[in-house]
Protein: Putative glutamine amidotransferase
Organism: Micromonospora cremea
Amino acid sequence: MKRPLIGISAYVEPADWAVWRGVRAVLVPEAYVRAVTVAGGRAVVLPPDDEDGDVLAVLDGLLLAGGADVGPGRYGQPPDPRTEDRPDRDDGELTLLAAALAAELPVLGVCRGMQLLAVAYGGTLHQHLPDVVGHEAHRPAPGVYGAHPVRFAPGSLAATVLAGVDRVNSYHHQGVADPGRLAVSGWAEDGVIEVVEDPERPFVLGVQWHPENEPDPRPVAALVRAAGQRPSSPPVTAPDEAVRSVRPRAT
């Protein structure tokens, strides 16, 4: 049986390697690829591209990776000076998400990916979480992960997928303020939203932490499992209006 093909959204950043310095490169941390591979999937790296979502026709699942902030114009707010967005990622990932939902593919959003899910479903973000919670524990220092307890809503997809998990890592300065049409199914001890999901779909899940860097990356394994169980279906070429609504444009 073939391995499920999992698309992982990537980004373009200046990078250094060998003799090259500051070359624009398509990047995604190898931890995402490793987590998908260990879970039994085959990772396919997807650079930013908002032309169409046709690539989803050959994939079995979509993983929206972490990274820079979602543009505040996507949810109707002026930018905070501390917000660092990537419009090309927003455009490309919202295109992929619309196509994935139209094709009923399993979707996992990680950190930024969870925030993008919330915005796509009509929600809003806190642009600088320490202003809301009064501490820096969710991103204690540049390049340093924090850790905190987490709890899940009984009976939710999150509670099923993450049974037994009570503590997660943390590296983010933004957070979900309003989940839009998504259901909140996980919280940190300070009330920060840690998990969102779409209860109307078999597997649309967003987690605020980085499971690819956890020793037990259950959300990634659950995505691969859901992708492997998905029945084959013809590609969707014309998303309906409900799906089109998850692709807001900058204002």
